[in-house]
Amino acid sequence: MSQGAASAAVVSVGNELLFGETLDTNAAWLGRKLATLGISVVRGYTVGDVAEDVGWAVREAIQVADLVLVTGGLGPTPDDLTKVAVADVLGRDLVVDDRVRESLQERYREQGMEDVPPAAYDQAYVLAGSDPLHNAEGTAPGIFLRSDETMIVLLPGVPRELEDIVSGSLLPHLERLQRNASDRVWHHVIHTTGIAESRLTALVEERLADVPDEERLGVRLAYLPDLRGVDLRFTAAGPSRDDAFARISPLMQSIEDVVKPYRFESDSGDLAEAVNQILREHGMTIAIAESCTGGLIAKQVTGIEGASDVFSGGIVAYSNESKIDLLGVSSADLAEHGAVSETVATQLALGVADLMNSDIGIGVTGVAGPSGGTEEKPVGTVWIATSLGDEVAATMCRYSGGRAAVRAKAGQAALAAVYRRLVDATA
Amino acid sequence: MSQGAASAAVVSVGNELLFGETLDTNAAWLGRKLATLGISVVRGYTVGDVAEDVGWAVREAIQVADLVLVTGGLGPTPDDLTKVAVADVLGRDLVVDDRVRESLQERYREQGMEDVPPAAYDQAYVLAGSDPLHNAEGTAPGIFLRSDETMIVLLPGVPRELEDIVSGSLLPHLERLQRNASDRVWHHVIHTTGIAESRLTALVEERLADVPDEERLGVRLAYLPDLRGVDLRFTAAGPSRDDAFARISPLMQSIEDVVKPYRFESDSGDLAEAVNQILREHGMTIAIAESCTGGLIAKQVTGIEGASDVFSGGIVAYSNESKIDLLGVSSADLAEHGAVSETVATQLALGVADLMNSDIGIGVTGVAGPSGGTEEKPVGTVWIATSLGDEVAATMCRYSGGRAAVRAKAGQAALAAVYRRLVDATA
Fold it and tell me: How far apart are the CA of B400 and the nearest CA of chain A, in angstroms?
C-alpha cells in the first residue's frame, strides 16, 4: 500500500521457530532475494502453530506491505494450518484444485501407490480465487492470491522448496511489483576482518564527521558485526545502481585509508571466497595443517566452487604423533615448547606445504577449550603461522568465547593472514 | 498478562535482519533459553532501524506477553535507536545512569583513553526508573524495567553480550516469572537421521492412529525437519518434568519400533556429539579421509568437547596424488574406477585408519558440484565407506541441492553410518 518502493512483510509460522529449535533462514533468504528485486522487507512476524496468531500476523502485514509472504504450515502434518487461518482472515473458502490433485496423484503413482494418502490429500485444497505455484522440490504447492491491492503468497517452510517456488513460478509476479524504479534501494558493502566494531566505528565516524550532511546525499551507513568481522553497508535509493553508487562513492573514498588494512573483496562476504580468488589470481596453491580448528579452515576453503584448483590438501593433526610422523614437527620442540607454540605452528605450516607440494601453508595450534588451558596458555590461546615458500610469519592470538567461537575466530584470522600476505605481495 | 504459564515476546531490531544479511540467532537462542525456564515465546517481531517501527512492535508485544525482550539497536552507532523508541512508547525520559557512566569511564581508562568518546557516552543514558544489566562482554549494558504488569528488557544485538546478560544479571528476574508451575511446558525430542520427513510422518502417524485422543493426555507431537534429519518433538504441560514425561512416554513407546532404525541419542541434537559419545563408551577412536566434504566431517567431530580422546586425525585428500601418496589408494583403481567409486572410498577409509592408527575409518568421495558431474556420476553422487578393523562397508548416495547441501548431507550420512555400526555392534 506504500507509495514508494514496493514493500514486503514476512510471516514465519512454526512453534519450532519460537522455541528456537530451528533458525529462521527462510526469512533471511527472502530478505536478500527481494532486495535484489528492489523490494524491501519492512517487517517480520513470527508466530506459532496457532490459527488465530497466524490470522493476526497476516491482518497486520496486509496493512503495511504490498507483498505478504507467509512461510511454513503448508505440509501434510496436523500442525499445518496456515491455509485455514489465511482463508478465515480473507473470508474465502478452501476448494480442491484439480491441477494440484492430479499432480499429487501422479507423484504418488510414480512411487507405486494407488492413491494419494488421506493426509497428503489435504494439499490439494487451495484458497478460492488463488493460483497454485509449482513446487519442483516437494508436494505442497505455494499459493498466490491478491486481496485488494496486496499480493499474498503462502510458501512451504522447507528451504529448498520455498527457494524453488520463489525463484521459479513466483518470480514473474515479483517482477511486476518493481513498478516504482526511482525508489529502488541499493546497497554497497565493504567487508572487513581483524578489527573490533567499536574501533572501526570510531575510525570511520571520525572521518565522516568532516562530511557535512548535504554532501552525504541521503546515503546511510550501517555497521554489521559478526564473528567473522564487521561489514560496512552503504545504502542509497535511486533509479539505478550507477546512480546510487555515484553518491555512495565519495563517502567510501573519504574512509578508504582507515578501512584499507582490514578490507577484503568477496561478493558473498566470505573470506574463504576472497582467499580462493586471490590464490587463483596468483596461480598459487594452499595446504592447511590444523590442530585446534580441527578441519574448519579446510572445510571453509573447500566450500567454495572450484576450490580444487587452489587447495592442495589438509591434515587435521590432533595428536602429537601425527604432528611428528606426518608433518615432521620436531619431537624435541614439542617437548620443550608444547604443542601450542610458535615453533610448532611454524613447523606445521612448513610441513604441510612440503607434504602437499603447495606454495602456501597454514599451521594452527591452540587451546579451544573448555578444558586444556593453563596459566601460561589459557583457553583461547592460538598460534597461527603462514608460510609463503620458505618465509614463515607467526602470530599469537587470545580469543574469548566458547569452543566454537575460539575455533571460528582462529580460522578467520588464519585466512585473513594469508589474504593480507598475498595482497601485500602484490602491492 | 496471560493467566497461564509466563509468556514472552521477542522484538528483533535491525535493517540487517530484514535485508537477510544477518540471521536472527538471538531470537532462537532466547527461545531455547526461556523454554528451559518454563517461559514460552509466543510471538516474534522483526523491525528495521526505524523508531516508529520499534515503538509499534513494543506496544504490540506488551499486549500479548508478560516479558518483552528487545534485541539490537543499543550500540554506539547512529542507527542504534532502541532506547529512544522505547522511552517514547512508555512516556519516560532518558537519564544518565551514574553506575554505567563510571564503568564506561573505567573501561576507556583501562584502554589508555582519558575520557569516554562522545559517541560511546550515549551508552550511559538509560530509561528513567530502569535498572542497567551488567554486560561483561561489551560496553552497552542491558536495561531492565517494569511497565504495569510487564517486564521489559532491552538487550544488545551482539550474541555473546546478549547471552552473557541473560544468563547473568537478568536470570534472577526471569526466575521470578516462573510463578505458575502447573503450566510449565516440557519438551521431549527424539532425533532421527536418514529418513525423509514424509516417510517418517507416514510411519509414525499410522501407529498413532490407533491411539485414541483421550489416551494422548494433551501431548502434542511436531515434526522438525532440517538438512541433518527430522526431530520428533513431544510437548506436554505439567508441574514437573517427571509428570509430563509420564504422559509422553506411552506415545513414545507406541512408535518405538518404527523410529528405532533412524534414532540417535544426543542432548544437543548434533549427530557428531552422538558419535563422540558412543566412541567414548566403546573406547574406540576414529580417523577421517575426506575428499568432497573437504574437512567438514573432521570439523564436526572435533567441534565436540573432549574430541581428542576419540578423534585420531583427518586427511583432506582433494588431489589424486594425496590419495595415492598419503593414503595408499591404488593408482590403477583410481584410473580404472575414478576417484568417486566404491573401491576408492573403501581404500580411503582403510588407509586413514591405518595411517592414524585408529579403530574406525571414514572415507568419503563424491561430486559436490556445481561442476564435475558426468552422466554416470552426476553432481550429488557420493560414496561413503566406514571401516571397523578390517571390515569395510560402503554405500553410494545421490543428493540433491547445491554444493553446501550435498556436503552437509554426505557428512551427516557418514556420521550416521558410523553411529549405526557401533549401535548394531553393541546390540
Answer: 9
State the nearest Cα–Cα gap between A211 and chain B, in angstroms: 15
ipTM above 0.85, yes or no: no
Sequence-distant (≥ 6) Cβ neighbours of residue A12 within 8 angstroms:
A24, A26, A27, A44, A45, A46, A47, A71, A72, B44
* Residue B270 to residue B34: CA distance in whole angstroms: 21
B186 vs A contacts (CB less than 8 Å): none
Contacts of B158 in chain A (CB under 8 A): 197, 225
Beta bridge partners of B315: A315, B289
In terms of domains, do A198 and A290 share one?
no
Residue of B25, B45, B308 with shortest CB distance to A318? B308
Partner-chain contact A119 B201, CB within 8 Å: yes
Q: How far B391 CA sits from the closest chain A CA (Å)?
A: 24
Q: How far apart are CA B143 and CA B141, in angstroms?
A: 6
Hey, how many other C-beta atoms are within 10 angstroms of the C-beta on B335?
A: 9
pLDDT tens track for B55-106 = 999 999 999 999 999 999 887 666 679 999 999 999 999 999 988 888 888 8
* H helix intervals, B313-402: 320-327, 331-337, 342-355
A88 sits in which H/E element: helix A82-90
Q: Quote the number of domains for chain A.
A: 3
Structural domain that includes position A135? 7-180
Dihedral Cα B178, B182, B184, B188, nearest 10 deg: 150
The pLDDT tens digits of the residues spanning B317-341 come to 989 999 999 999 999 999 999 999 9
Shared-domain flag, residues A72 and A103? yes
d(CA B306, CA A370): 9
